[in-house]
Amino acid sequence: MFIRVQRVEEASFSADHLQNPVNPNNLMVLGFYRNYMGTAFTQSYNKKAAPIYWDTVTGKTISRRKWTAEMKSYAEKCATEVPPAPFKFKLTAIGYIFIVAVIAFFAYLTYDSLKPPANPDAIGPTVLMEKMMAGDIYYGRFIEMDTDSRFSKRAGFGWFKVTDAGDEIVSISLNKEMSTAHKPSAEMNSTDFESETIPMKIKSQEPYQIDLVSEDGTIEMSFSEKKINHGS
Fold first, then answer.
1. Which DSSP string do the residues of 130-163 spell out, in sequence order?
2. Phi, psi of 205 (to 5 degrees)
3. 92 contacts 58 by C-beta, under 8 angstroms
4. Confidence bin at 203 (pLDDT 50/70/90)
5. pTM of the model
6. 189/161 Cα distance (integer angstroms)
7. Which CA distances in Å does 181 have to 144, 165, 213?
């Protein structure tokens, strides 16, 4: 995207009656300039035009630090006669098209996410909504809190195996190779599990996550993926 910045002269005034602080024998001109910036999508002007004194002989600008009180006063007076900016900000034709396209895109995404399925009865539960069975293997995380302090004493990510599944309690075995940091499930061991099991209750079972908690509330597990075609 190109960007064009331009200084536009809005007005000029003779300053022959003022003393040039740099070259006393040279005359000056007072000009007012406003910055313009244009892109493919937008155009804008500075609201305020800046005054600049020019030496008519050398063609050089006179630093504002060297302005006399009379020069400052004259600049303030002439500023009231400078025409206002034609506009501060506006979109180009391309800009309008781009904005409309963006709005239409997000409107489509919103509609697509909210519209009902063509045949709701044809959509079944995801694998995480299936009833837990002995031998099922899930990927997720766990955290164990200290009984007294309630601070975390260990946590990890990895695969978990359901060794027994009752109506209210499921027994879970942790993998022998749990990671303290999250890793892709494909990189984690999904075959070797501890012989010790932990009785857990299912807190919630949603299409994207299963949450479990131990009977004493010190261990929590969350499963986000189920292993398909595993062995018993």
1. SPP-TT-EEEEEEEEE-TTT--EEEEEEEEEEEE
2. -135, 105
3. no
4. very high
5. 0.47
6. 12
7. 15, 28, 21
Count of Cβ atoms closer than 10 Å to residue 71 Cβ: 21
pLDDT-derived band at 229 (thresholds 50, 70, 90) equals low
* Contact of 102 with 32, CB cutoff 8 Å: no
Tokens of 78: 């002439």
Tokens of 22: 């740099």
Considering only CA atoms, give the Rg of the chain.
Answer: 37
Report DSSP state, residue 30.
Answer: E
Q: Which amino acid is at 221?
A: M
Collapsing DSSP states into helix, strand and coil, what is residue 69?
helix
Tokens 């002269």 belong to which residue?
9
CA–CA dist 206, 179 (Å, integer): 24
Supply 23's token pair. 């070259």
- Show Cβ contacts of residue 159 under 8 Å, excluding neighbours closer than 6 positions: 137, 138, 139, 175, 185, 188, 189, 190, 193, 227
12 in Cβ contact with 58 (< 8 Å): no
